[in-house]
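Why do we care about 3D structure at all? Because function follows from shape, and shape follows, mostly, from sequence. That is the central idea of this module. The next example makes it concrete: a single protein chain, its amino acid sequence, and then its structure expressed as tokens.
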Amino acid sequence: MRRHLLSACTAFSLLIVAPALAESPPPPAQAASQPFTYTDMLVANRLSDPRVSPDGRHVVYAVRATDMEGNRGVTSLFIQSLDGEGEARRLAISDGGANTARWGSDGALYFLSGRSGSSQVWKTDATGSEATQVTNLPLDVNAYRLSADASKIVVSLAVYPDCDTLACSVTRGQAEAARKSTGQVYDRMFVRHWDTWNDGTQNHLFVVNADGSGEPVWVTRGFDGDTPSKPFGDEGEFTFTPDGEAIIFSAREAGVSEPWSTDFDLYRVPASGGERVNLTEANPAWDTGPVFSPDGRTLAYRAMRRPGFEADRWQIVLMDVATGARREVAADWDRSADSLQWSADGRSLYVVAGDIGQTRLFAIDVARGSVVPITGPGHVSAFDQTRTGFVYAMDSLTSPSELYVKTFRGREMPRRITSVNPQLAERVFGEAEQFSFPGWNNETVHGYVIKPAGYVEGRQYPVAFLIHGGPQGSFGNAWSYRWNAMTYAGAGYAVVMIDFHGSTGYGQAFTDSISQHWGDRPLEDLQKGWAFAQERYPFLDGDRACALGASYGGFMVNWIAGRWNDEFQCLVNHDGIFDTFAMGYSTEELWFTEWENGGTPYDVPEAYQRFNPANHVRNWSDPMLVIQGDRDFRVPTTQALSTFTALQRRGIESRLVVFPDENHWVLKPQNSLQWHNEVFGWLDRHIGSQD
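And the structure:
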């Protein structure tokens, strides 16, 4: 889970119309005739993970297509020339399943595939016509990284840590699967995490020779913890040293404190096995993302300062490999770095960071600490360097991810090189505008308003008031396959989204301000933002509006039901918190609730009750749709059941939709379709889309 009416005020607005596509002109406007809908969104292709070939001539990327009949996603690898010549080509090796493509310095393209019956590392050449198996391990490879000379591969496998061999882990897994009794025994937490119960395995690293010789070397043997971390870690958490003689990895020791600790450290361990050295023991907070400079003399990584706070600012630290001396780069830059890459000359670091509703690629001068934005409006999700600049995946409110090419210092507009969703050129999107207003403490707060597709001047439209989760998150200029603002615009609704205090991309103090203030400062921002939007945009019909949110947004929906219960004609609550006190004892990542409330439920019970929606149920009156994934262990199902019970007991119109096989998100295509049918049906019933 990563969340007085306003009269006259001063504000500015920035018009943003199809920002990603504006950098590479779309087909003629007259080609578009039908509004974009959630069914269009569900079947749209999903581009990700661009990787530039060693010779700098091509980029390989993944495209996930949706098989609605099969109720699954199907991923293929594509290759595209970076000079703009020729069409993108699907690699034939995709037929057997292929993902996580990585170029080796030997010119081969490595990837993961389950075509042999388990997930293993395979390779092909640039033609992608034939696949050769590289690893043949008895367990699935869940992440991997190549050494600089491509002679070694470090792989992550889920093993029983007290086993001596991989064969032991295989045998134990088979025995567990065959066991007749079903009882599970736990002596410590995590008992369950995100959407899975703890089965006793941990992610550990093994080094194998790329030529298949020798035996795997268990380099993290004896370490009590996961690398990469669960549930969302990847190979960005570990790397070879430039000479291939050692591994640097980020991990947290589990012990008995894992559910309330964010103390991830960087460790160095020989690739041949041996003693681990903790490189960041002095920092009790999070350290991760190790990347070596081209000359191998400097290790850059991202670090937080405050233990227990997962939304702290990611600072950039440089460590001298020889001496261990370290310094922070761009210490005064009030943004949080999401990723790091060195420039080829070692003089710059390239990072992605949220920035006032956008997510941009930045260049940081390592010596001076100066920061320069490289990309403009839009959301950069991934990037890689070419010989002359960058190729990056970028999306926006009006476009899923496409690849763009830009030179290092050129002032020319980026050049779009892919078109994975040409059918969307025939769809009409709403026009989006960013605005700002004085919110809590008279500080500037930003938001977005979106006109319905096919907007007609002079008409009023019902409103979907979307509230983001996190709460340290943002509803910015980005595409989503779960909460996509343009699906509401396509259905005839106007959309208002407020990046209230606590949102990311506006400076760390702004993000910090929500902790221990879940129900006052953000609510004031939402109230003032809603009032400002209605005053500024007369096409918003304030008498036909519905508030919708998930996770923290779902908490806020419950909070609105009791504290601002005369404003909206309906509410939608997805995986939202009903009882903050019970949440402190039932969620899995305890560091989150303990930081946000200033301690444990038994030490500061009054903090958990201060903004507890359960304490204001007597004021509830608005119709509410409640949705829950039963495998959501972040906000457990009891929260949704309690919400629905309160509504039913109060005699309030309500509906509960439970997905037994979904987690905090709804991921399966058919489930997502049902989710949207329920949500839009609820809106249509209570506020009605414009005819």
